[in-house]
Design brief:
about 270 residues; Rossmann fold; 2 domains; about 45% helix
């Protein structure tokens, strides 16, 4: 199993893990800036992006892939950064290989993820399809955002309905959606059905942790992220007001500033 991997920059390594649906390209909001001072290693997970797969797989196999990836690049000391599903995988890596990682950054993620997403209606799907198609051909068009985007499922992913956030959706979100395989969808659905919960194991994590959440996140609630932070000994929690699950695309400058400040403290 070979993963497609994007490596940027030089210096201390940061393993960056995308969410679902997602790809390495979706993490460029972090890696384009962090790679100026560090080496960012960003794989397409198995069944996502340009990484292939031969048959159905489980979430556990993502962890095996990532361990092999670190071995391949002879990385025994690095930071972990994961967004949504990527944060859950980062947590799992930190639990099973604690000596390998110096710090853990979780973006819109939780050890016991909880959602309060409203039921999806037929109208939601229609408006999402229209808004997505128009936005793909004319990214960030304010008329489309106001007319269709605010009535679509995008309103639960992005609280601040800005052209800049919709440009990220067009250039990174939509391509990642279509590159996410049925096997990846199945693996995640199986994990959710099993009732993923690692809260009781979190006190085992003794490395510094930064947990960032969007106050209006309906996919993984800020409250579930906060509970995760409270269970980790050395953890800092930041909750951004008026933002949702894709808050790094809503307020990228603020998020990156907080990330860089936290990472710089680890080096002191």
């Amino acid at each position: 199993m070979d993963l497609n991997v994007e490596i940027k920059g030089k210096g201390y390594p940061i393993l960056c893990l995308h969410g679902h649906p997602g790809s390495a390209n979706c993490m460029s909001v972090f890696t384009d800036v962090l790679s100026k001072d560090y080496q960012t290693i960003t794989p397409d997970l198995r069944g996502y992006g340009k990484s292939s797969y031969r048959k159905d797989f489980s979430m556990k196999q993502h962890l095996e892939d990532l361990q092999k990836l670190l071995d391949q690049y002879q990385i025994e000391d690095c930071l972990l950064l994961g967004w949504s599903l990527g944060g859950i995988l980062a947590l799992e890596l930190a639990l099973c290989s604690r000596k390998r990682f110096r710090g853990l950054i979780l973006i819109a993620s939780a050890a016991s993820p909880r959602s309060d997403h409203p039921a999806i209606t037929k109208q939601d799907l229609i408006y999402t399809g229209i808004a997505g198609i128009i936005n793909f051909f004319k990214p960030g068009w304010l008329w489309n955002i106001n007319r269709f985007g605010t009535r679509s499922l995008f309103r639960y992913l992005i609280f601040q309905q800005t052209p800049a956030a919709y440009q990220y959706l067009a250039h990174q979100g939509v391509p990642a959606y279509f590159q996410t395989s049925a096997a990846a969808n199945k693996a995640l659905s199986s994990a959710i059905a099993d009732g993923y919960n690692r809260l009781d194991e979190l006190p085992q994590i003794d490395i510094p942790c930064l947990i960032l959440a969007g106050e209006c996140d309906r996919h993984i609630t800020a409250d579930s992220s906060k509970k995760t932070s409270q269970k980790i000994k050395n953890s800092q929690f930041i909750c951004y007001p008026n933002t949702a699950h894709l808050f790094p695309w809503e307020i990228p400058q603020q998020v990156l500033q907080d990330l860089q400040q936290w990472i710089s403290k680890l080096e002191d």
